[in-house]
Amino acid sequence: MSDLTHLDASGQANMVDVSQKQVTSRVAIAEGRIITRPETIAIIRSGDAKKGDVLGAARLAGIMAAKRTHELIPLCHPLMITKAKVDCVVDEELPGVRVTAEVRVGGQTGVEMEALTAVSVACLTIYDMVKAVDKEMVIEGVRLLEKAGGRSGHYKAEG
C-alpha cells in the first residue's frame, strides 16, 4: 500500500499534495471503442439518428467530461486544461466507432484521468444516442495509450 499515493499511513483516502511538484508540460492520450451492429454504423454515418449528430455530440461530451473530471472522480485535482481533443472515427471492421482523446496541461499533476474520462463519456454518449436502435452495443478497450511529463516520465502502451 505504500505505493498508493492517495492513502495515508492509516489507509485513509486523501487528495495528494502536489504543491511542491514542478510545473511541467503534460499530455495523455487514451482510447476506447464502441462495438455496434453494421446497421447502427450506417445510421451514425448518415446522420439519421433521431437524437442528431452522434459523433459531433460525442466529441463535445468527451471534451466537456475532460474539463470536469475532478467533479466526477474523487481526489482528482481540478486542472486548467490547455487542450482537450476527442476524435470519433467510424470503423466498419469493428463494426463500431473508435474514440481517442488527447489532453494537455501545464501543471503539477498529470491528465491521464481526464483523457480516460473523455473517452468513456464520448462512448457513453454514442451509446445513448443510438440505444433505441441497438441495445447490444459494447463499450470496450478503454485504456491509456500514452502519457508524458512529470516525474514518472514517458509511458507508451504496447500493442
TrEMBL record:
Catalyzed chemical reaction(s): (8S)-3',8-cyclo-7,8-dihydroguanosine 5'-triphosphate = cyclic pyranopterin phosphate + diphosphate
Source superkingdom: Bacteria
Enzyme Commission code: 4.6.1.17
Pfam families referenced in this protein's UniProt entry, alphabetically: MoaC
Alphabetically ordered keywords of this record: Lyase, Molybdenum cofactor biosynthesis
Active site residues according to the UniProt entry: D128
Pathway(s) this gene product operates in, as recorded in its UniProt entry: Cofactor biosynthesis; molybdopterin biosynthesis
The keyword Cytoplasm is assigned to this record: no
Gene3D superfamilies: Molybdopterin cofactor biosynthesis C (MoaC) domain
Residues reported to bind substrate: L75, C76, H77, M113, E114
Tagged with keyword Membrane: no
Listed InterPro entries: MoaC (IPR023045), MoaC_bact/euk (IPR047594), MoaC_sf (IPR036522), MoCo_biosynth_MoaA/MoaC (IPR050105), Mopterin_CF_biosynth-C_dom (IPR002820)
Enzyme class: lyase
SUPFAM superfamilies in alphabetical order: Molybdenum cofactor biosynthesis protein C, MoaC (SSF55040)
Family statement: Belongs to the MoaC family.
Complexes and interactors: Homohexamer; trimer of dimers.
Main function: Catalyzes the conversion of (8S)-3',8-cyclo-7,8-dihydroguanosine 5'-triphosphate to cyclic pyranopterin monophosphate (cPMP).
Protein name (Swiss-Prot/TrEMBL): Cyclic pyranopterin monophosphate synthase
Source organism of the structure: Saliniramus fredricksonii
